[in-house]
Amino acid sequence: MRILHTSDWHLGRAFHRVNMLGAQAGFIGHLVTTVRERDVDAVVVSGDVYDRAVPPLAAVELFDEALHRLADLGVPTVMISGNHDSARRLGVGAGLIDRAGIHLRTDASGCGTPVVLKDEFGEVAFYGLPYLEPALVKDEFGVEKAGHEAVLAAAMDRVRDDLATREPGTRSVVLAHAFVTGGEASDSERDITIGGVASVPAGIFDGVDYAALGHLHGSQTITERVRYSGSPLPYSFSETDHRKTMWLVDLGADGSVAAERLDCPVPRALARIRGYLEDLLADPDLARHEEAWVEATLTDPVRPADPMARLSERFPHTLSLVFEPERTPDDPDVSYARRLAGRSDQEIAEDFVAHVRGAGPDAREQAVLQDVFDAVRADDTVREVAR
User: CA distances (Å), 343 to each of 28, 196, 339, 348, in order?
Assistant: First the structure.
């Protein structure tokens, strides 16, 4: 069976101040063409269809168009909700849409109920595991402590239990929206840390033939059977080095996996340039970036006059301007930035406690701080879902 694996469309999202709806529509057209020209048997979309719980009308219209075009092809499509989606809103009408071959899986209670498709070698069971916010689904899965690994492991137990009841040789595909250990993050993904832990081990997907992952925006192979498709378009300059692709996966009769990366159309290259303003304006090696979307980091010790206007004369698509002036090592701003670099909210809070009272928090106080941070994140998620 030939499967096209994609995720993280983020319909409705902009790139800095650039409206990406046209590029997103272009991707949908590319997806439909790929399905038709490459004889795809099934499409999987592993979450974050929209960029936020209440998407703009234009994004909803584009999604509606995508559903119609996929249904017209007669190729089954399985979709799950991600942490940016409202599962309830995305899942409206799922029962009716199911009849058109578009299978929306947004309810955690349905993790063990697959979409079963057939090819000449037999059945393939597609299990949709929507993004599982631990605080919201721990009771559904009967886990004592809310954590990503616990709820995802419980969901995968349901998958394996169902698979065990099926005919021997039934192949299996899991769609999941999660941060798997070994994956490389970018600045574009929303933080899903709970209890100080965001990631889950790849071994959690043992027992299935292919895990089609969403959430991380870079296309990557965790194992031969566990892969991220990444987002089809860039959504931050941290993705400058990404190659935006989809996975074309051939699932053999014996459950073997052969995967090919298919490039997605990107409207414009990304570039990060750094240095003194005058050097950036004069450097001939930067000519290749003159038509790219540019993030410029200026290191001039003194902020130059009209830097954006001057940069835009040479790089008309400059979208981000960052100031990081060169400073001496003993500059207080340098030492403070270094103390904060790469530190979590929890670590910064613990440092603050130590600074105020002369001693850092003990184990009990660390647990209290962690519970507070988790509660804030969970509360933000609940409010987003309820909007």
Answer: 38, 12, 8, 7
